[in-house]
Specification:
D-amino Acid Aminotransferase, Chain A, domain 2, 2 domains, six-stranded antiparallel beta sheet, D-amino Acid Aminotransferase, Chain A, domain 1, alpha+beta, binds 4'-deoxy-4'-aminopyridoxal-5'-phosphate, about 30% helix, eight-stranded mixed beta sheet
Length: about 290
């Protein structure tokens, strides 16, 4: 079966799926999105992802295009039609189609698009050696907690990372403190073994992987702190890593070209990655049991 996408009530071949040129997502980036991981055919952390989607929509006063339960059925149907086992489902909702005008349209119904993407297992080398990050100024707006499709600053810093031979760019606020990556949350492990990640505020997107990993850390009894850390502190850290729905827990072993500690993925990072993979496997099993 060819790859299929969902657009406003219809399942279409991916190559023919399209929205109108006056969609406000296209014209103003007036919309939000979610990326929900799929592991062995099951959605991971579906409810928290949908909670965040509804929150982002609420902050922008965009209506849910359908009830949550209906959205969940569409997601499952798209996974089935694409025979997706490992990858993610992408959901985008915009304020809809209207003649171009900055103010909210009096009448527009939200646009809903869903696509799926297969992913390959992470390359062994990334996990064995860890990845490099560069640090860059955070030039974004002050509502980074909203998962908006307005991602131009994120695009630019990711490109800078790629051109520097790095995996990710860690954005830094005016006080020299790391906010987050272009599409990942940033973590360090301090000298006393505490896992540190920035507290959730309007300065970062509160990653669902971040939240789930915090739950795993609590359950396993590791020490953690939610607070900002500086670039200097990160460079002097015992370990560093990043989290996201597609990177899971990824060791960071170089910051701005300098090795973190001995330049090898740290033991806590490796343990947390394994705990997170176990957590995902458990979620998949539970989802299948309820006939997800
Ligand atoms: N920060 C930003 C800016 C992101 O785009 C993402 C990925 N959506 C994350 C953090 C990680 O969030 P999650 O764990 O929900 O994928």
């Amino acid at each position: 079966m060819p790859r299929q996408a969902y657009v406003n009530g219809r399942y279409l071949p991916h190559g023919q799926a399209a929205v109108h040129i006056e969609d406000r997502g296209f014209q103003f980036a007036d919309g939000v999105y979610e990326v929900v991981p799929v592991h062995r055919g099951a959605l991971i952390d579906e409810e928290p992802h949908l909670d965040r989607l509804e929150r982002s929509l609420g902050e922008l006063r965009i209506a849910m295009p359908m009830r949550r339960r209906a959205l969940q059925l569409v997601a499952r149907e798209l996974i089935r039609r694409n025979d997706l086992r490992d990858g993610f489902i992408y959901m985008q909702i915009t304020r809809g189609v209207a003649p171009r005008d900055h103010r909210f349209p009096a009448q527009a119904s939200p646009t809903l698009v869903m696509t799926t993407r297969r992913t390959k297992p992470h390359r062994e080398a990334l996990l064995r050696d860890g990845v490099a990050v560069i640090t860059v100024p955070d030039i974004r707006w002050r509502r980074c907690d909203i998962k908006s499709v307005a991602l131009l600053p994120n695009v630019l810093v990711k490109q800078a990372a790629v051109e520097a031979g790095a995996y990710e760019a860690w954005q830094v606020d005016d006080e020299g403190r790391v906010t987050e990556g272009s599409s990942t949350n940033a973590w360090i492990v301090t000298g006393d073994g505490t896992a540190v990640t920035r507290d959730a505020s309007q300065a970062i997107l509160n990653g669902i992987t971040r939240l789930s990993l915090l739950n795993v850390i609590r359950a396993e009894g590791y020490d953690f702190a939610e607070r900002p850390f500086t670039v200097a502190e990160a460079k002097a850290a015992r370990e560093a890593f990043l989290t996201s729905s597609t990177s899971f827990v990824m060791p960071v072993t170089r910051i701005d070209g300098a090795a973190v500690a001995d330049g090898r993925p740290g033991p806590l990072t490796k343990a947390l990655r394994q705990h997170y993979l176990d957590y995902m496997a458990g979620q998949g099993a539970a989802d299948r049991q309820v006939g997800g």
